[in-house]
Write the structure tokens for this entry.
Amino acid sequence: MNSCYIHSAVSISAQNSFELEFLELFEISGKNVEAIAPNYKEYISPMVLRRMATGVKMGVAAASKALQNANIDKPNAILTGTGMGCIEDTEKFLNSIIANDEEFLTPTSFIQSTHNTVGAQIALGLQCKAYNNTYVHGALSFESALLDGLLMVQNEETKNVLVGGVDELGTEFVDYVRMLEDQNPNGIKVPIGEGASFFVLSSEKKHNVVELLGIKTSSKLSIHSLQNELIAFLSHHHLKPDSIDVLILGNNGDSFDDYYDEASKAFPQETINLSYKQFCGEFYTASAFGLFLGCEILKSQQIPETLLQHKAQKTSLKTILLYNQFKGRDHSFILLRQC
Amino acid sequence: MSELKQELKEKIIDILNLEDLSPSDINNNDALFGDGLGLDSIDALELIVMLDKDFGIQLTDPKQGKEIFKSISVLADYIAEHRKK
């Protein structure tokens, strides 16, 4: 079985994550927060760009840069995860059906409203006819794509896999979601966000890359069994809680943050606890931004100061565990190690 | 007729998201497809919907499109002759 390494990690988010060498994070505020758009024309031709909605632009640009950074022209597989798909064009298309009394339906927004548009546009841009799959599975969408990529590399089916998570805000549906959350005193407290994070997974070991040791996903997990599940996951990878230097958690301020409190109890006090959704917002594939952060921390051996609640005692950062869940469902553990 | 040509240029830029172009960049006799504006078959479908929605013109024969969408001038002449709105 091959090991799986992350050769590049690129993220478009509410932070300056796409352009900067290392992140200087700032806390975001507001109901919904858009991603910071890079200069898309550097990555996408203007004639193609004009038809693309936000999510497609973000996905194609992040994927292009991830491949560039990994020195790969065409990957052996393209795997995309998205919770809401191309909601912007879906809303546009459905609204035009209503406004025009089911007549005069324009093709562009319909064609681009499908969930697999991002994966398809990446493949079209690269003229890449390799295995191409899109996972739509709530807050496990990105993890499902990542798991597919990990298995492909580990089982020696392929050498280089492009994996990413994309979600866009859209214009209407997100406002109703926000309204519901705001009416609930235990609802999500961070802004609803958007973004695209892409990674190149490879079986080739290189200098200063991050190894993706494992992923585990569970649709349902009781809070009482969480610690046992975490310890079992670590044992499976021959690790114990004290082997984990950094625990990256998906806190979003809602009542299900209890899961994160419970998870952190399984680890010794020296383990650094970080949460990231106050920087990127909550969305179904926000955990891809968490993975991007994990990779940046391991590669640079630095944690952005704004992420740290207390001064870190660790001198070297070797192993990171990411834990995410959404509304008490869709739990995921991702384990990373510095090489 | 010049007002209709100006309206068509504005509509084409808006509907097809030709963000980098202004109406003055499109000459009345420029080819819309191929070497001119470089529009493609999806754009042709958008233009067919525009003709129906804004001018009440329904194109039933796809071969007609090739002639009608030759340039702004040709398109404006066709609309002036056949419009129902």
